[in-house]
Specification:
The chain is built from 31 helices and no strands. By secondary structure, the chain is mainly α. The longest helix is centred in the N-terminal third of the chain and has 20 residues. The C terminus is likely disordered.
């Protein structure tokens, strides 16, 4: 049948179902509604699929008394109610999301655990979607134990290292060709168990009590996949295991697993649902160790679009959050266009009640607005309790980066010291985060500025520590770190030498060229500004003027108009004749600079 005619036929049968007297014919109409629901779901018409599935249940309920409904039509009722239950997870109107009859009926009438397993997956996901993460983990773990899986009783003290090592050896002994040729899983019960493990693992990472379950369950997913066959959930598990390997220091092995998972997305049927989560693991956690972060932007945007298409708003906004943060920190995107994207993402997050993602977008939006135009209406949301209450995970790292970067670019040394303290106490605990290298970079620059301003040995030790961390070839740095290292080398020379010594000219030139060739617009601007300060301290006015003008032009190209104005206000060399500049050289040579407020704040440029 032509699909359009098929849907029209089912619609007519539904309209006339009250006139059909034969029980067998009504059962057949209910079955046709199930087929129509499946076809509509394939085309992302989730509301239409929901209407067909619920109509099929309604027809059976009108035909049979409640006591005989499941007995007479067990298989069809199980399929219809499971379909309705799963559709509640998608982007449907509120009145469609409260149909508890489906999950309640399955859990009550289902004969076996295998029949109920898809419903258990739905209940676990619904609990997680509603923010009841620990309850979701407990519920999912209970189901897995009933299915025969052994899970740690005392989760925070269980030694997971042997399990990770065993799984790593098993994964290493399986070559890429074997993964690609692995038979598709046919045991639906085992495939549903693997899917449930993935969701419980995902929710457990946000619970301090259940954090180790992420590694435990991901290892089980990998082993079960290699034993029972490949599935979309198995592909997701391989990507998650790659992220775990990266987190514990096996970066090459983790990258290998991530690349295999990406290839399997194109090789394994029906992987559309897991594209967003696989892209999150591969391009949000793994690949920034191997390639420039901006190369992950397109896959993350793809993950966002796919998740929107399949109605998974959790995955959509998680991809969008990483996309926006990476675009700002490493992508060199114009701030005006990025801010428009962030506002759109924030609106979606608010519409769907995604509190942690609202926090990320609000924090990022406020910072972008400040860079562009100073404190404007709406920026106060950055300090709102609704944002700061989500001070965990990516929200916390993003806030730390933004606070430190703004203090370095705009504020005086006192505020900079406060921001450094906020970052340092958790900096070493985010070594696998894609922002770790940038945090180390900003800490190195910030301590260098404090050394030049105060001469304190304590600050010099800390500056050298972060500069050493950023050395080329260090295992803790991502692929974006080379140009940051070049600038830190120049700053290290400036920090250790007196203004009359010189010797940093080529180092700054290398840093500027490195940032420019890599497309890191904001870092090229920072490098030119710091080079200008270096030449100004050496009383080389014309060269300093050239670097400050380049920095202002680059900040303007980036969209940071407020920073450009701050630079013009702080360093009058950009607009003033040489004799005015010479009056301020003595202040600059001590590490201080003449400051005037560029907005409502009193600010100082980085020195």
């Amino acid at each position: 049948w032509d699909e359009q005619h098929f849907f029209l036929s089912v619609d007519h049968l539904n309209l006339g179902s009250g006139f059909i007297k034969e029980t067998s014919e009504l059962v057949r109409v209910a079955g046709l509604n199930l087929q129509a629901a499946a076809k509509a779901k394939e085309r992302s018409a989730f509301l239409l699929a929901f209407k067909y599935a619920t109509k099929g249940v309604e027809i059976l309920r009108e035909m049979f008394p409640e006591s005989e409904l499941w007995q007479q039509n067990y298989d069809l009722m199980l399929k219809l109610t499971t379909f309705v239950a799963e559709l509640q997870l998608f982007d449907l109107p509120d009145h469609c999301k409260n149909c508890r009859f489906a999950t309640d009926s399955i859990l009550k009438e289902g004969k076996t655990l295998a029949d109920k397993m898809r419903c258990h997956v739905v209940v676990t996901r619904m609990l997680g979607r509603d923010g009841k993460l620990e309850e979701a983990v407990r519920y999912g773990c209970g189901v897995l134990k009933e299915a025969g899986y052994r899970l740690p009783k005392y989760r925070m003290t269980w030694n997971i290292v042997p399990e990770i090592v065993r799984t790593k050896r098993l994964a290493q002994n399986t070559c890429e060709e074997d993964y690609l040729n692995l038979q598709q899983g046919t045991d639906t019960f085992k495939m549903d168990c693997i899917k449930l493990m993935n969701y419980v693992a995902f929710f457990s990472q946000f619970s301090p009590r259940d954090g180790l379950l992420l590694a435990v369950l991901t290892c089980k997913v990998v082993r079960e996949t290699l034993i029972h066959g490949m599935s979309p959930s198995g592909v997701n598990g391989l990507a998650g295991f790659g992220a775990i390997l990266v987190a514990i220091g096996y970066k090459e092995d983790g990258v290998r697993m991530g690349l295999i998972a990406s290839k399997l997305l194109r090789h394994v049927p029906n992987c559309g649902q897991v594209v967003p989560s696989v892209n999150l693991f591969v391009h949000g956690v793994i690949m920034h160790w191997k390639e420039l972060t901006r190369r992950s932007l397109e896959p993350l945007l793809e993950g966002y679009k796919v998740a929107i298409r399949v109605g998974d708003m959790d995955a959509a906004l998680s991809n969008a959050g990483l996309y926006a943060t990476m675009s700002y920190s490493c992508g060199g995107r114009n701030l005006d266009t990025l801010c428009q994207d962030v506002k759109a993402f924030k609106k979606q997050a608010r519409d769907y009640g995604q509190e942690s993602n609202i926090a990320i977008f609000a924090v990022l939006e406020a910072h972008l607005l400040y860079l562009m135009d100073g404190w404007v209406e709406g920026s106060a949301e950055f300090l709102s309790d609704s944002c700061l209450s989500h001070d965990v995970g990516s929200v916390r790292v993003t806030r730390a980066l933004i606070d430190l970067e703004r203090a370095f670019l705009f504020e005086d040394d006192c505020i900079l010291r406060e921001r450094i303290r906020d970052v340092e106490h958790f900096h070493d605990y985010v070594k696998t985060h894609f922002l770790y290298s940038r945090l180390s970079f900003l800490l190195g620059l910030s301590f260098s500025r404090l050394v030049i301003a105060t001469g304190r040995r304590k600050y010099k030790r800390m500056a050298l520590r972060y500069m050493t961390q950023m050395e080329k070839g260090k295992g803790g740095n991502g692929a974006d770190a080379d140009h940051m290292h070049d600038l830190l080398v120049a700053e290290k020379h400036r920090m250790n030498a007196s203004p009359s010594d010189g010797g940093a000219e080529e180092l700054f030139a290398t840093a500027i060229e490195s940032a420019s060739s890599g497309g890191f617009l904001q870092d090229e601007a920072i490098a030119n500004e710091l080079a200008g300060i270096y030449y100004l301290r050496r009383k080389d006015i014309e060269v300093a003027r050239t670097h400050f003008q380049r920095a202002a032009r680059l900040y303007d190209q980036w969209g940071a108009r407020n920073k450009r104005q701050h630079l013009r206000t702080t360093h009058k060399i950009l607009l003033s004749p040489s004799q005015v500049v010479e009056n301020s050289i003595s202040e600059v040579s001590t590490g201080a600079s003449t400051t005037q407020p560029s907005s409502t704040h009193e600010v100082t440029s980085p020195t």
